[in-house]
Each structure stands twice: as structure tokens, then as C-alpha cells.
Amino acid sequence: MDKHVSNKIGVIGSGSWATAMIKMLTDNQSDKEVYWWVRKDEDIEYIQSYKHNPSYLTAVEIKMPFENISSDVKYIVNNSEIIILNTPAAYLKDALKELTSDDFDGKIIVSAIKGIIPDENQIVGEYLTQTYGIPLENILVVGGPCHAEEVSQEKLSYLTFGCNDLKKAEMVAGFYRSRYINTIISDDILGIEYGAVLKNIYALAGGICHGLGFGDNFQAVLVSNAIREMEYFVETIDSTSRDINASAYLGDLLVTAYSQFSRNRTFGNMIGKGYSVKSAQLEMNMVAEGYYASNCIQGIIARYELDMPICNMVYQILYNNSPAPKEVNTLAKKLS
Questions:
Q1: In degrees rounded to 5, what are phi and psi of residue 143?
Q2: Conformation bin of residue 108: beta by default, left when phi > 0, alpha when psi is -120 to 50
Q3: The domain 191-332 belongs to what CATH superfamily?
Q4: How would DSSP label each residue in 58-106?
Q5: Cα-flanking dihedrals φ and ψ of residue 157, to 5°?
Q6: What is the pTM of this model?
Q7: How far is 192 from 194, CA to CA, in rounded Å?
Q8: Strands of 157-162's sheet, edge to edge?
């Protein structure tokens, strides 16, 4: 870090994953000061009165100084040296719109966002570097497998912290480690971030197939093909040495494809059962990142002329209104 190392950490976002982050950071016994950006003032008032997020992970007790919770993003960022970005990718630009490059100067920025910025078609690390001039060595990404709901129940979970500077990855990981959180360190920032984007698309595919009535045998083959497709994609984008069977890639894919808590699988399941995209979005209270990612990844696939049949199937169903049974049956003939 360009400035002195600090224990002041700011979390940007107030959904379920952000609330889980607040729990992890405040349960950890290391010396630090946590700040939290919550978008709605009425939610802040509720948290201050009842010590719980009114909308997400409502059973989690908020254990932090309430004066450190604010809807003023500049206040949170200016009081923190490590910034955890934890909004849906589609809403990140709006959350940061009041900030400039000067606000981020010398700070470590951690992306806990598993999606792509839609208009720019960029992963978060690329967007931060291009828009705010943040050096890549000051950017970290957080990978799973780790669902917020299980964090709220304090079930043993694992987080992977990726950064070009492993000392910074280790430092930030230390703020999360606890009796129910284990951490892994990696220098594969691009692979972890793109893998997190892709696994949401594959979970959507699994949900669509489940909604259509395909069973566990087919799902196993689908996921087996998905991890190979992911490896093909990330190795084309970035030649960094990685083990695609590691937790941040295969592990995160498995939990997102199979877990009852997976919003992307749930969204896909609704599509498979005949919901329109709009009706599925309206019924869900949380953002399915895979929906936006499908459109963005398709542009990258076209640019590199990649053969990615699972991603293509999801895109055809979601954006070209192609019948799901037709697309899945076409895909089934390509799987091995």
C-alpha cells in the first residue's frame, strides 16, 4: 500500500453478502475499525434501533459502532484505508458516482462483487483501474465458495483472496479469519474474478435444466463440462498458472450450481419452469448476477471467437427468447 498500513475498513453495500462481510469483520478478533455504507437512511435507522439489517440476513446481530454506519459514501471511503466493494455489479457505478480518483488514492480496494460492469463490459478490477486509476497491485478480489446464509449461521466456510501482491492479500485475509472462516491466498486475480462471473452463468444453466425436469445425472455432466469450459475461457484471457480444481474455481462453481441458497440457480430454475426474465426478476428479492454476466461474457466470447456452448445456451434463452427445451436439448448433444 502506498500509505501506511491501516486497520480502518469500509464496506460498500447493504445486501446479504455485505451484511455477511460486516459479520465476518466484526466477529474477527483482530484490531480494526469497521465502517459501513448503507444506501437507505431508513435502513440505517432500523439497524441503529434494532441491531439487525431489516431486509437481508435479518437474524445477524450488527456489532459495530452505529456512528460508523452512513449513507454518505465519501464519509465511509475517506475514513477507511481498505475498501470492500459489495454491491451488485450493475449498481456499482451508481454507488461510487460521488467519488473521484483522489478518494481512492493509496487505498486497498477489495472487490467482493461476482459480476461484470454492464455498460463497460469489464470485470470490477479492470473498471477500477481504468476509471479511477487504481494500481492493479492495490486491487484484491474475494472468491468463494462461501454463501452469505451459511456465514450467518457460522458454518465453516472458505474465502480466497487474490492479489498480485501476496502480502496485501495475506493482510486483508487476516481481518476475516475466525473460528468459522478459513482463508486461502492467491496471485490469480483475473482467473478468480472471471471464474466468479462464469460460475453464475453455469449455475443459471443448471437451474434452467432443473426447472425443465433434468435430473442429477445430467446436472453432474453439465457441471463437469462447465469447469472445463471455464478453464478454456480463463486460460485464453490470462495465462497465469492455476489449478482449476481449486476451491476458488471448482469449489465456487459447485456450491453455486447446487446450493439451495444460490440465487442464480433459483433464477434459472424459474426460467426453466416457464417464467419470463422480467417476472423472475420481479419475484426475486436479490440480483442474479448471472443474468447480466451472460450478456457481457457473450461479447468477450465473440471477440476471442471462443466455443462455449453452455454460456451460449444461457444467452440464447435469456436474451434471444429461444425456447429453453430446444436449447438444452441442443446442448445435451455437445456434452461429454
A1: -115, 165
A2: beta
A3: N-(1-d-carboxylethyl)-l-norvaline Dehydrogenase; domain 2 (1.10.1040.10)
A4: TTS---S-GGGEES-HHHHHHT-SEEEE-S-GGGHHHHTTT--HHHHTT
A5: -140, 165
A6: 0.91
A7: 6
A8: 69-70, 33-37, 8-12, 82-85, 108-111, 139-143, 157-162, 181-186
Q: Is the pLDDT of residue 286 over 90?
A: no
Q: What cell was used for 1?
A: 500500500
State the cell numbers at 335. 456434452
* Average pLDDT of the residues in 248-277: 93
456489532: which residue's cell? 63
Nearest of 1, 173, 183 to residue 81 by alpha carbon? 1
Residue 186 has phi, psi (to 5 degrees) of -150, 155
Mean pLDDT of the chain: 93
Helix (H) or strand (E) holding 123: strand 122-123
Fold of 8-187: Rossmann fold (3.40.50)
